[in-house]
Every structure is written in C-alpha cells, then in structure tokens.
Amino acid sequence: MNTTVDGDVARFAAAVRAAFADLPAPDREALLEDIEDHLVEVAAETGGPLEERLGPPETYAAELRAWAGLPAPGAARRRGPRASRLGRRLERRWRAALAHPAGRAVVEFLPELRPAWWVLRGYLAVQLASLGLDLLFAHDVTLPVPTILGSQVLGLLTAGAAVVGSVALGRRGTATRRGRRLTLAANAALGLFALVLLGGVDATPPTDEPTYEGYVVSGSYLEPLPGLRSDGREISNIFPFDAKGKPLEGVQLVDQDGIPLVATHDDNPQLESRLPLDSSGNAIANRYPREQYQVDPATGQRSPVPAPRPRP
Amino acid sequence: MDTTQLLKGVLDLAVLAVVKERDGYGYDVVRRLRAAGLEDVGDASVYGTLRRLYAGGHLSSYVVPSEEGPHRKYYAVNDAGRALLAESTKTWRSFTDAMNALLGLDREEAA
C-alpha cells in the first residue's frame, strides 16, 4: 500500500465526514468509525482514485446517510441547536430502546391500542362538551355517564354517536396535511383533558364528610419516629393478660414478621428497664412485662413503675 | 428494469443472508453480494446498511487484526438479526410467490 492511496483515502474520508457535520460527534463516529479502513479495502482492490470507483464523496455520503436510516441534513438543522441536542439524545435513547427485543415488542404492540384510543377520544369529546355546557347551564360533570343539557340519557346517546364518529375518523384517516395537524392538535387537547378529568376524580372530596386538612402526617409518614409506637405514642412496656384478666409474666412477643417486638423509651430518658438475660448472656429485649424503674434525675433514686390496670 | 430500485427493499435481507452465511467485514460483504449476482449494489449503501443493522441491534461486531492492511471490523448476525432474517424471508417468499403468479412464472416452471 503506497502513500498516494493513503492520501486519497484520507481526502475522500474527510470529505465524507464533512458531509455529516450536522450530526453530533458521537453519532458521527458511531457511523463512520471504520470508514477509512473500509475505503482502504476498496482502494486496494481497484487501484485507481477512489472517486473513479465510488463517485464524488458527497454523493457517497448522501447514499450512506440514506441507507443508514438518518434524516437528510436539512431536516436535522431546522431545529434549534439546543432543542436538537435534546432531540438527538432522546432519539438515541429511542433507538437503543428499539434495539432491545422487549422495546421492539412494545412499540410494535402500541398501534394495536389505536382503536381503544378512538373510542376513548369520542367519549372524552362529549365530556369536554359537557364541561363547556356546564359553564352555561349549571350542572355537574358526571362520571362515567356524561350529562348533556342536564340529561344523562342525552349524554349517553351523544357519547355513543361521538364514539362511532371518532372510530370512523380513525379508520378513514386524514388525507391532507392540514387535517392531520388538526387531528393531532385535537388528540393532544383531549389527552390533556383526560388527565384533568382523572385528576378531578380523586381530588374532589366527599362533600358531607369532614376533611382532615389539619391532620399531621409528617410525623408518621415523612419522618417515622424511632422506636415502638402506637399511633405515634411510644410504647415503653407491654402488660399481657390472659382471657380471665390474670396478668401474665415472661411473655415473648414478636410482630407479624416474627421480629422481636422491642419496647423503647426514647421519650422518657428517666425510665430504666431491666432486661433478663438468656443462657449465653444476651439481653432478651422482647420479654414482657419489663421490670422498670423511674429514676429521679436529682437524687438518682429508683422507684419501681407500678403495673397499670387495663382500661376498658 | 432498474435493479437499484428493487434493491432498496431487499438490501437488508441480502446483507443479513450474506453475513449469516459467514461473518464479514464491510468490503467483504460488498464483494460477496456482487459475486452472488447483485452487481449494482453500491458500496455506500452496503456500508450504511451494515451500520444501521448494527445500530439497530441485529448485528454484533468484533475487530480482527490484519497483517497486510488495517484492522477489520467483522460483523456477525446475532439472535435479533436471525429473527429479522427469518421474518423477512417469509415476507420475501410470499411476495415473490405473488409476483411469480402474476407474471405467470410458476406455470412455466411447472411445465
């Protein structure tokens, strides 16, 4: 292999690369990573200048672009630089998802949902119309049967007709570009409305029941307090009784998962528990009732905590 | 008839079939397609098709150092590629059956 061939290959490859300048560098490299090696093979076989064998590099690049399934250079450039970067990243993710068999299966399945959307679309259109009429004539937007002019029967009939119309529209398709854009816009609007409708279902509180807006959920939900608690109140000891009301001693308690139930007294640092030890000298923390003493912080004196009486 | 127009629909199938027969690097695939009778196949179209099938997860690739020239990037058909080839072959068969019937070619063969 002589240097003139290498120079020819380098020139040709550079011209091809230049034709892909609109692609982000990683994409361009992924496409053209072995173009030089490839061209060297071509050159080695034919001997003459590459252009003679392959045509002008721009034509070569255009053919390569088309076969690699990439958009024409103009199409990619029309988007803003920022939007296109995001777009390309999404596109790469999308391609990667499609490369996976599961991703492909999902994408191939999606068109089958189209008829379901047509039905839903008709229904949503009527609900939206009902909402529009609601502003003129005061009545509620009702689920699932829409109310039209105060009548659910009329609502049902309208919904039926709209579903038939929507399905017919879906099956026929839209021939003109303008029609397609209109359909797309209407679909997007109805999709958005569906979300609003869904949100409304949950957000509406039942009118005759009290709401618990003042209820403190942060203590038990966002930051669960440590220790053994019942409704947020710390359990420092447990007193079991048998069926006849006789107090039991030495009862070992576990929770629903078999994990020892260990009482705590973080809220009451002056409480002292004496835990029994097992044969190997480890504290048995879940045996109840515990022997407990209240310590006087001033004197350090301990007084036994009396057992409570069960409250009805 | 312009065979480049016909090739547009079937180059994926042809490339997959060639690579399935034996792993190949870019120019080797071009050569084998031409040797098989697809003389009009364009170099850039094969290169582009290989890159697209690779990006789409239908081909895997590995590099083989070559003594006389550059390292060669070999392509091999993976499971997804085999599935695509099988599916495309089915489509191709039913399409050619229909075309042959239209053109009266199947009757000639039978005669």
| Number of separate helices of chain B | 5
The proportion of strand residues of chain B reads: 5-15%
CATH homologous group name of chain B = Winged helix-like DNA-binding domain superfamily/Winged helix DNA-binding domain
Average pLDDT confidence of chain A is 77
Kindly state the number of beta strands of chain B. 3
Distance between the termini of chain B: 26 Å
Spans where pLDDT lies below 50 across 5 or more residues of chain A: 209-222
Q: Kindly give the count of domains of chain A.
A: 3
Helical/strand content category of chain A: mainly alpha
Question: What shape does the CA trace of chain A take?
Answer: flat
Oligomer: heterodimer
What low-confidence regions of chain B span 5 or more consecutive residues with pLDDT below 50? Answer: none
The total of helices of chain A stands at 12
The main β sheet of chain B shows up as: 3 strands, antiparallel
Strand order of the largest sheet of chain B: 1-3-2
Outline:
The complex is a heterodimer of chains A (312) and B (111). With 312 residues, chain A is mainly α. Chain A contains 12 helices and 7 strands.
Descriptive notes:
The complex is a heterodimer of chains A (312) and B (111). The longest helix of chain A is centred in the middle third of the chain and has 27 residues, at 177-203. Chain A is flat and about 105 Å long. In chain A, helix 1 (3-19) crosses helix 5 and helix 9 (114-136) crosses helix 10 (152-172). Chain A has 12 helices and 7 strands. Chain A has 3 domains: 3-99, no CATH class; 113-203, no CATH class; 226-307, no CATH class. Chain A has a 3-stranded antiparallel β-sheet, with no helix packed on it. A two-stranded antiparallel sheet of chain A has the order 1-2. Chain A has 312 residues and is mainly alpha-helical. In chain A, a hairpin with a 6-residue loop joins strand 6 (291-295) and strand 7. With 111 residues, chain B is an alpha+beta fold. Chain B has a single domain (3-110), classed as Winged helix-like DNA-binding domain superfamily/Winged helix DNA-binding domain (Arc Repressor Mutant, subunit A, Orthogonal Bundle), CATH 1.10.10. Chain B contains 5 helices and 3 strands. Chain B starts with a helix and ends with a helix. The mean pLDDT of chain B is 87.
